[in-house]
Amino acid sequence: MAIINNAHRGSHIPTLLLIDELLTKYRAKNLGKYFQRSQLLSAVMPESLYLRNEKDDSGSYCINTNAKGKMTESLDFWSEYGLWDSEIDDNGEKGYRSNDLTATRRNLPKRILDVISRHYYPDGHLLITLDEFRNNAKLSRDFSTFVFAMCFFLYQEESNFQNQNFLTQSKAREMMSGAVQSGDIRITFNMSEESGVMDYGHLLGFLETVGKDTYVVDPTRFVMWHLDDIFKNQSALSIQEFLDKLNHILPIFDTGPYQESLPNYLNTKRPSMNFNDGNVLMSSALSLALFRLENMKLLRLEVRSDSTVRFDLSLPTSAVKQVTHIQFVGEVA
Question: Can you list the domains of the chain with their CATH numbers?
Answer without folding.
Answer: 13-98 (1.10.10), 106-333 (no CATH)
